[in-house]
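Task: sequence in, structure out. Protein: Branched-chain-amino-acid aminotransferase.
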Amino acid sequence: MTYTPPTAPRRTSDERRAEILAAPGFGNHFTDYMAHQRWTVGEGWSSGEVLPYGPLNIEPASAVLHYAQEIFEGLKAFRHADGSVWTFRPDMNALRFQRSAERLALPPLSTEDFIASLEAVVQADEPWVPGGGEKSLYLRPFMFANENFLGVRASHTVDFYTIASPAGDYFPRGVQPLTVWISPDYARAGRGGTGFAKCGGNYASSLEGKNSAVGQGADEVMFLDSETHTFIDELSGMNVFVLHSDGRLVTPQLTGSILPGVTRDSILELAPDHGLTPVEERIDIHRLAEDIASGEVLEMFAAGTAAVINPIGKLASEQGEWTIGDGGSGETTMALRRILTDLQYGRIADDRGWMHRLV
Ligand SMILES: *Cc1c(COP(=O)(O)O)cnc(C)c1O
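Result:
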């Protein structure tokens, strides 16, 4: 599939872009262009076009505004020292996008078309890919029902866009140990629900849990399973890992209510190279609290594309507080973070063929 390149000029001046790239924050600024494909029932996917980034013309009756038939992805484009631009395991995101689409009754988009959209945007917006440091260009493919119809059924018209946003640190304080509040009442997703799909609705239902965590002075919320409220699912947008003193690196097994993170999968695969034993199993929150208190748990961290790997310094709940290790950034946590970012920025060899060149 080939994209028609943009014809419209850039909307952002070179000076303004340089100013934004100096301190991009996260998700605040958007590039000059976006990629678009439309699907219609009977006809399938249109060819791709690169359009100027700008408002969409959506009618008030558009299905997505009422029934939230929407999915998205999140990846980053990294500039390497030689100026080339790469992304990390985009085939994994494409596959997850297909699984999310199926769950939300949206049409599947081929891996080829998914990756073509990333290439189209990053090629058009190449000057927006920051260089140096730990900055990147965050890529946000998303698909939504866009039929003007208020009945409840899968939409006959669907739009797929990819937009881009220069990114610095995800958390405003940079890489600092997080305090995580264990939600006493909310769950993120239930069995048979949409927990494994990357859909906007999951985030809508996580917001109040996150709000109450912030109200408790925490940075993030941890959701437990909806049935027994005993086992860890994940944070609002990141998977969770626990490092034990015997070298086991444990993350909750995928039960359907947990988002299968690409970062999570990559950490599990890299762990043995670094003397760690990756384990996927259910994590009982009471047992975890005991293991933290006894010193058996050495480190905890959160993992996702946006924040990469971020240490968790403390858990808190209505029952008390548990400081992990000395509450600081764990050594293994920061080493894993460095390995992953070194790989993504091309500073170490890509033995597994995980990197995909975009420009
Ligand atoms: C995207 C996401 C993650 C992290 O997935 P990555 O592929 O590693 O970015 C974790 N949890 C939720 C709920 C997410 O939406």
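The mean pLDDT is 96.
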